[in-house]
Amino acid sequence: MAAQSLPVVAILPGDCTGIGPEQTARILHDGRLRHVARLVYVGDKRVLDMGAKHAGVTVDYVVYASVSAVDWNDPRVPVIDLGNTDPSQFKLGELSPESGRLTGETLSRAVDFAKAGEIDAVTFAPLNKQAMFKGGWHFPDEHKMFAHFLNHTGPFSEMNVLEGQWMTRVTSHVSLRSALEQISIESISRALRLADDTLRKAGIEKPRIAVAALNPHAGEGGLFGTEEIDIIRPAIEAMQREGILCEGPFPSDTVYLKAFAGHYDSVLAMYHDQGQIATKLKGFNKGVTITAGLETVFTTPAHGTAFDIVGKGIADTGAYEAAVKLAARIASRKIEERARAA
Amino acid sequence: MTPRPLALTMGEPSGIGPELALMAWKARQGQGLPPFFVIADPDHLTALAEKLNLSVPVVVTEPDRVNEMFPLALPVVPLDMAVVASPGTPNVADAPAVIESIRRGVSLVQSGAASAVVTNPISKSPLLRAGFPHPGHTDFLGVLAEEHTGVFARPVMMLWSESLAVVPVTVHIPLAEVPAKLTQDLIVETARIVVRDLVQRFRIQHPRLALAGLNPHAGEDGTLGPEDAAVIAPAIEHLRSEGVDATGPYPADTLFHAGARTRYDAALAMYHDQALIPIKTIAFDSAVNVTLGLPFVRTSPDHGTAFDIAGTGKANPASLIEALKLAERLSR
């Protein structure tokens, strides 16, 4: 693909008290993702400078006022300097509400570029959910915040991606009681459509989706709960009629093993811990988190700010690079589709 | 005194239990298995061994002769009735034999003829149709224990493997009923039984318990549900005031990785799948079901009757083998 047709991906340093800045500097300094996307750094340049120092690298960059002004023939890294975050004001490896507030502000500025059509996707280094919440961004997670920024009213969801497997869930950061209330034929159908659509957009032609049951032993024929009979199975059957390759409900203690063995591309969980226990054990924290269903593509490494190793220059960038690649892949297909439609 | 043998029940004869017993005996040397006997219909086992080309000789014997027979043949303590057994299709007519095998197992361990009971999987529906009034295997064992000792026994299910021991506080109930069923008393009582058996049977002097939260992120200071702070945390406080090394509630999704597992001897999960998902993910083939709170040691493989592969020889005896090894270790 010619450089000019590569998608434009904004790359953000995440919370400046975490490992994000040094990871960002490392993947920008040697142009290792140049063939994947046109990367533009959006954030404070002092944060990038600090990251470069921690990583022990030099990032050759040039500052632009806006993304539309970037000269993509210049081999240097384009930087949009927001001038909003002085990292010397914060202690490394320590949660700071003010840094959380600024992390959210930087994300919202990146969304503005997306709304203006100047970037195709956003990949951000780890943020700290608690710092952002305490800094005034009162959302249960960043996905809801992005939807809010974009005035998005349709379905959207977090997905966890590792080695071609896409894990998602019907309910997310809510109490178990609320999750039980939110499980319906409609919400499951919505989640299945969203998963199917997202996987197709990522280039998986016929996504195979396994659906987890809610109750022990998948309800044991109604003995341990009737949601499988009354809600989950009818939803699966309705979606099968729409052409979605979904199966289940499967007992949740083995459904992930089936997927890990390669029988499915995706598992739909009913609630947070049902999905997170198995996927975290499988190493999905080395994977990528994507916000599915929004107009702008958002990806981030699934790991956190790793306060224990900040500033040492040893943070691994594998998941972060995978996040950029995934954002670029989905954005590229979107651009192609738009070109075909035009 | 020579160690007493383990009693292995027949389980549902149309399921995979009987063939697993044959396979486990075949693996006795490689696996270093302790002597055990099956309480079953010897003709059925002989026929099944022939059908599966397993070349396992079967010998009818009494428990006190099992140790000398075990190297030569699979010792069978015979039931008084023959079984019908057609692999994959349970027959209600076999229900009395299934129940009798369990009864005899408990009697033999209570009389001292066996050191522990290892149970093969049973199927609920044929037993229910035959009038069996107990909701499950484990509940039945609790009732039998009480019949023998006159003391109320509250069985507690533990899933065990070399790398994780986990106990679900609520078990076979709909998930929607869990928040209401989960009380401080239930958590405290369960934890006490777990601690007692970790000390007495697992020989862990100062057991460390880690309790999972009910809600995502263990409720995140109450914003994701009240039970973690209102029910689980006070139960932990109570246990600590009794001298129990209990900690939590921890977010369930970060409680089971290798690093976390070094910090406790058993985890308490709040509901069935919160316990089963991690144990199956970590130890799919080799996890064992252990019943705590009984006056005797009882273990079983943590899978079901697997009617879909019964009689084909495809069943994997790994979990039964681990169950036999653990039963021996706990009853030493």
Structural features, described:
The complex is a heterodimer of chains A (342) and B (332). In chain A, 39% of the residues lie in helices and 18% in strands. With 342 residues, chain A is of the alpha/beta class. Chain A folds into two domains: 1-152 and 294-342, Isopropylmalate Dehydrogenase, CATH 3.40.718; 154-292, 3-Layer(aba) Sandwich (Isopropylmalate Dehydrogenase). In chain A, α8 links the parallel β8 (208-212) and β9 (245-250). In chain A, α1 (20-29) crosses α2. The longest helix of chain A has 24 residues, at 318-341. The two termini of chain A are 20 Å apart. Chain B has two domains: 6-154 and 295-330, Isopropylmalate Dehydrogenase; 163-280, 3-Layer(aba) Sandwich (Isopropylmalate Dehydrogenase). Chain B is built from 13 helices and twelve strands. The N and C termini of chain B lie close together (12 Å). The interface between A and B is large, with 35 and 38 residues.
Question: Quick recap of the structure?
Answer:
The complex is a heterodimer of chains A (342) and B (332). Chain A is of the alpha/beta class and 342 residues long. Chain A has 11 helices and 12 strands.
CATH architecture of the largest domain in chain A: 3-Layer(aba) Sandwich
CATH class of the largest domain in chain B: Alpha Beta
The succession of helices and strands of chain A, N to C, reads EHEHEEHEHHEEHHEHEHEHEEH
| Total count of helical runs of at least 4 residues of chain B | 13
- At the fourth CATH level, what is the homologous superfamily of the largest domain in chain A? Isopropylmalate Dehydrogenase
The CATH homologous superfamily of the largest domain in chain B is named Isopropylmalate Dehydrogenase
Q: Uncertain runs of chain A with pLDDT below 50, 5 residues or more?
A: none
